[in-house]
Amino acid sequence: MKCYYLYLFILIGICCFSEVKAKNTGKVFNGNDPAVRYIGRTLVSPDGSVAFDWVGTYFETRFTGGNVSVRVSETGTSYYNVFVDNKLHRVVKVCGTDTLINVVSGIDKRLHNLKIQKRSEGEFGKTTIHQFVLSVSGRLMEEPVVRTRHIEFIGNSLTCGYGTEGKDRNDPFLVETENCNMAFATMVARYYDADYTLIAHSGRGAVRNYGDSVRVSKVTMKDRMLNTFDEDLTHKWDFTGYRPDLVVINLGSNDFSTEPHPYKSEFVKAYKQIIAQLREYYGNIPVLCIYPVAMQAPVYSYYETIVSELNDPKVFLLKLDKDLYNRTTDMGAAWHPGYRGHQKMAMWMIPYISTITGWELTNKVIE
Fold first, then answer.
1. What's the rounded Cα separation, in Å, for the pair 159 and 178?
2. pLDDT score of 297
3. Residue 264: strand, helix, or coil
4. Domain coordinates of the chain in residue numbers?
5. CB 184 within 8 A of CB 293
6. pLDDT above 70 (res 162)
7. Do 150-357 and 4-141 have the same topology in CATH?
8. What's the pLDDT band for 25 if we cut at 50, 70, 90?
């Protein structure tokens, strides 16, 4: 997972093609083929297609034949990391309706591992995977090993990887430079060899969203966290789909970024509601509440009140140091941390996660 800053240089600009027929080009597999394992919140249609929009949603399989294309439909424009045998193979841009996009080519026909990860937010597009198209000799095979740990992260732009590939803090945000794979959440998951789900949306808070004119916003992460899709409030998630071993909440910086700030009672109530919903659906798992680095208001006591009032031995609070990362050299685009800033956040969290979960620390590099 090294050389992250090469990502933009190997970006493949795939245009929004009109429909490309797959007749006689190879073997065709439905989006929900049993050999493909999806991690995250998805919706499967009767025709076998699989739809999702949350950032960080990924799917894994193994394949032979040296070539993989995916027939997709996209409501906007999304970007994906494609990994072959745990190495970044390419980045693809997905847009258009019923589009056939080549995601793997130029490799040998032996058995390989494939992981495709949605690196951009649901705000920019929802993807539907209709089919996988392989070469005539190709086939899909299930991954033999399933991870035994699962971490869910609930958050905002930092969890999404907003601007992580930007080169300077004054660079504007571009969808192309958002990459959740370079964010603290996925680093933590990789360190513990855990599956992960990112329930995150830039600019959203627990009770108030960034720049809102009111103290209490109409729809915040306490509402979105209940949905199958980030951008669709009508489809509620079936929480029997998975049960994480740990939930990490990184919210609050948007709530207090601009005036008017919510009252303490409003913030505490909304945050406690988030945890109550987690308890309802996930039971008595550890919940780690993060006090953000970039908090612009002295409200740490609000978080202490939340933990105190809950009086829940499985709810923990970790304060990230305000000087944890350098505000110049560790930044990506739009004054958000880049890879090095996120790496320092992950390095701060990992020892504490080990303490509250019992997961052993290793000599693995945090990257």
1. 11
2. 85
3. helix
4. 4-141, 150-357
5. no
6. yes
7. no
8. low
> Domain 150-357 falls in which CATH fold?
Rossmann fold (3.40.50)
| Alpha helix ranges (H) inside the chain | 157-160, 184-191, 221-224, 264-282, 300-310, 339-357
Domain 4-141 in CATH 3.50.50.60? The answer is no
d(CA 46, CA 80): 25
Residue 24 in tokens:
């006689």
DSSP letter at 328?
T
Cα dihedral sign for 290, 294, 297, 298?
positive
Exposure letters 173-198 (e unless 16+ CB within 10 A, then b): bebbbbbbbbbbbbbbbbbbebbbbb
Token pair of 352 as six digits: 């504490």
Question: Helix, strand, or coil here: 197?
Answer: strand
* Residue 185 pLDDT > 70: yes
SS (H, E, C) 337-354: ECHHHHHHHHHHHHHHHH
Is pTM beyond 0.85 here?
Answer: yes
Q: What is the pLDDT of residue 296?
A: 77
Angle at 186 (CA atoms; ends 45, 321), nearest 5 degrees: 135
Reply yes or no: is the peptide bond before residue 260 cis, omega within 30 of 0. yes
Q: Provide the pLDDT confidence category of residue 146 given band limits of 50, 70 and 90.
A: confident
* Each residue's pLDDT tens digit, 207-216: 999 999 999 9
Please say if the pLDDT value at position 71 is more than 50. yes
What is the distance between the alpha carbons of residues 321 and 302, in angstroms, rounded to a whole number?
A: 17
User: Which residue in 130, 132, 127, 163 sits closest to 54, CA to CA?
Assistant: 127
